[in-house]
Specification:
Number of strands: 5
CATH class of one domain: Alpha Beta
Mean pLDDT: 90
Radius of gyration: 22 Å
Strand content: 25-35%
Low-confidence stretches: 1-10
Largest sheet: 3 strands, antiparallel
Shape: elongated
CATH superfamily of one domain: Ribosomal protein L7/L12, C-terminal domain/Adaptor protein ClpS
Order of helices and strands: EEEHHEHE
Structural class: alpha+beta
Strand order of the largest sheet: 4-3-5
Helix content: 40-55%
CATH topology of one domain: Ribosomal Protein L30, Chain: A
CATH architecture of one domain: 2-Layer Sandwich
Bound molecules: L-tyrosinamide
C-alpha cells in the first residue's frame, strides 16, 4: 500500500495488490529399493510423517509394489525438512532408502 502523510494524517493514495497466492506445495515421495527392511520404512513413516501403523503399512506396500508412494503434501520448507529427516535416519541405520520432493500443480 502506498501512503502519503498529509497534515499528520495518513491517507491512502493507491492500493497495491495484496492478495497473496497460496504457497506452492510439494509432495514428499518415498522410493523403493531392494534392501531397506519393510519394518524400517513403516517406522520412518510413523515417526517422520505421523502416520498410523495401518497408514504406514499401506504406503510402504504401495512403494514396494509400485516403486514409489506419496508420504504427504507440504509447503517447501516442511517437505524439505522431512526429506532430510528420512535421509538422516536412513544413513544412521545404513539403509539405502531414498526420499524426494516434487512440486504439485495447484490448479
Ligand atoms: N522393497 C523393500 C524390501 O523388500 C521394502 C521397501 C519398501 C523399501 C518401501 C523401500 O521405500 C521403500 N525389503
Amino acid at each position: 500500500m502506498v501512503t502519503h502523510l498529509e497534515n499528520q494524517k495518513e491517507t491512502v493514495l493507491e492500493r497495491e495488490h495484496t492478495d497473496l497466492a497460496p504457497p506452492p506445495k510439494y509432495q514428499v515421495v518415498l522410493l523403493n529399493d531392494d534392501y531397506t527392511p519393510m519394518d524400517f520404512v513403516v517406522a520412518v513413516l510413523r515417526r517422520v510423517f505421523h502416520k498410523t501403523n495401518a497408514e504406514a503399512e499401506s504406503i510402504m506396500l504401495k512403494v514396494h509394489h509400485e516403486g514409489r508412494g506419496i508420504c504427504g503434501v507440504y509447503t517447501r520448507d516442511i517437505a524439505a525438512t522431512r526429506v532430510e529427516m528420512v535421509r538422516q535416519l536412513a544413513v544412521a541405520h545404513e539403509h539405502p532408502l531414498q526420499c524426494i520432493m516434487e512440486p504439485v500443480s495447484d490448479l
